[in-house]
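Section handout, structural biology tutorial.
Before the tutorial, make sure you can parse a SMILES string by hand: atoms, branches in parentheses, ring closures as digits. In the record below the ligand is adenosine-5'-triphosphate, and the chain has 240 residues. In the tutorial you will relate the predicted structure tokens back to the input. Do not try to memorize them.
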Amino acid sequence: MLLVENLRKSYRVPGGGRLPILDVPRLAVDRAEQLVIRGQSGCGKTTLLNTIAGMTTADEGQIRIGDVDIARLPEAARDRFRARHIGYVFQTFNLLPGFTAIENVMLGMTFTGSRCDRVRAEDLLERVGLGHRLRHKPSALSVGEQQRVAVARALVNKPVLLLADEPTANIDPGHQQQIIDLLRSVCETERVAMLLVTHSPEVSSQFDRVEQLEAVNRVASKALHEAANESSRTAQEQWP
Ligand SMILES: Nc1ncnc2c1ncn2[C@@H]1O[C@H](COP(=O)(O)OP(=O)(O)OP(=O)(O)O)[C@@H](O)[C@H]1O
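Predicted structure of the complex:
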């Protein structure tokens, strides 16, 4: 379902040159498979998810989701493809504060160009245990409830792939398991593949498949970071 091959990604650094972040020879994920991506802070886990989602572009390599290589699509087509086929749950939920729970979920549908399906949005909010909170705005919801709305929003377009970037990082320990259980059960029943980034050993121990992402070329990265810092120091010193 997802096939990443020979993926390389770097960022431009202020002092010139590029900072290599990702070098992933192969990552294959089956339909409805659930796996955890682990790795030390800064090794590129978020960058990997963002690249798979087409929110940032790869330097080289392919990212096939079904028959489509998202890395080769032009930006507008990538955005449309993401809206239709990929769900994303962020650490910080990213709900719109002026909209109710149901509106936040339905907003996820507006980018696909298809008709907004209120019944589907209500059904998902029901399934995440928020059927009685449809008209509450994020400020009137607990942190765990906000993340449950974000889960419903990520799944509303029936994606084939759900990307979850440390979805429990801002949730109190008592409710973290609830979010993980929710993600897993909805993905299972809807046959959605899930890539979950987590630092938590308790969470990763629950998954059959855990992939370790290694930091790329750390010596070169360190040298480039230092060059970038040196360049920004020099720029600051030259500022009148
Ligand atoms: N837009 C950007 N421009 C330049 N460098 C970036 C950019 N975004 C991220 N980086 C750098 O890329 C590296 C990987 O960042 P990323 O957020 O993917 O790591 P991570 O593994 O998710 O880290 P963490 O576990 O701490 O969240 C970091 O060194 C970061 O500073």
